[in-house]
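note to self — DONT lose this again. spent like an hour looking for the file last time. sequence + predicted structure for the chain T wanted, 250 res
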Amino acid sequence: MTDSENSLPAPAKPSSTIVLLRECDSRPELLMVKRRAGDAFGDSYAFPGGVVDHDESAARPYCFGLSQEDADRILDVPHDGLDYYSAGIRELFEETGVLLAHDDSGVWACGESLSGELRAKVDKGLLPWSQFLEQRSLHIACDSLHYFAHWETPLDLPKRWSTRFFAAKMPGGQNACHDGIETTDSRWMTATDSLTEAAHGKIRVPYPTIKTLEKMQHCSSIDELFGWVREQQSNGISLNRLDTFHDAAS
């Protein structure tokens, strides 16, 4: 390998994260999960999410509410836009048990589809995501995700991620709970409360999460927050790559 090849930045792995929201008395609450020690952002509270799997495309036939062309346009990618939506919803299910998918009649997933056993099998790769959806006659609710930010780790890091941020509303009839493996705790918190605890050193929060919370804390309802998201899309979503992101990850 030449010196020039050695100097090339590591490829940034495509990934997705979901800010899951539920209405509260004064401000919307966001689901925060604590990453296990040793992982990226270990021992920190962040939003559920993870890397786009190599076989994510197998789930495209089960995507609903968004075409491949629209997904590519919204994310400003040449192809495979739906894979980000699929990955975000799959990771949310694996880490929290919340499944943004519905049956043929449009009813949110419920009952056995949300069992811990099936969730663990999907997480461990024992049950492929596409096969799980086919067996349960479920459709990924891509239109429930609202894209609002794009963060990428700096070029000089050995491990890099290119992460799309989405906002989504908590579906009815489901409960969120960390898996106890990748995520060791979970909390519903307002953006303001999360920022206050982070400022007082009660919890660790990655820099991109901090910036997201700062922008969302002024929204008094989920509808207002989704309005802010639409404004971000109208203005054009630019790539964020900052040295502070490096500091927060170290």
